[in-house]
Each structure stands twice: as C-alpha cells, then as structure tokens.
Amino acid sequence: MVDLSISGGNLELQVRGADKLWALKSSLEIPLRHIAGIRADPSVAHGWWHGIRLPGTNIPGVLTAGTFYQHGKRVFWDVHNPENTVVIELRDERYDELIVEVADPQLTVELVRAALPDSNEAKS
Prior knowledge:
disordered C terminus; globular; three-stranded antiparallel β-sheet; 13% helix; single chain; 9 strands; 124 residues; mainly beta
C-alpha cells in the first residue's frame, strides 16, 4: 500500500512498511503535469499475470510489488488488496503507469484530479 500526498506541484507516493522491501522502492515523486489520468480500477489487479517482473515481487493472490513490463509498458505495482487499486497513467516519466493500493480509492482519485493543472484533462 502507498500513502499519496500532493506537495509543490508533485504527487508524492510513499511505499508503506515491508512493501519497501518487496517493491525495492520507498517513494516516487511525479510532477502533476505528467499525470495523464487516474481511475479506481480493481479489475486490473485481479488475476495472476501482471507482466514480466523486473526488480520486484509477485506472489499471485497475495502481493504484486515493484517494476513490471506489461503490454509494452513499464509499470510500477504495489497491491495486496485488488479492491483498493488505483491506476495512474503517466506521460514523460520512467513509468507508463502506477498501479497501487490506497486506503480509499475514490477519495484518492478525487484528490488527484482536483490538483491536476487542467482538472478536465484526467477524467478517464
């Protein structure tokens, strides 16, 4: 799971607890202008195939964390509970997507959309 916050024009994601070890990353910082879209989408985290694991961990049905190559995209994952998944689509970044578990997906989507430079831009 990650904690998200917005500060100084950036979306900051802090990886929580032992997930830092599994994901091999403790935080990410993304300029808000690089966010192409955000949505709550538990369906992407169901199933066992999440792509080719680069540095990271995949225990089907339990945990997906780290960097994966999936459908021609580089994707950062940190999900235990698929029901709390949000997908953040990026442009001009190392990752094409961030697929992460948050405490409240709908609130997270609203918070990020409201902070985007053009809040109509990421209504996907």
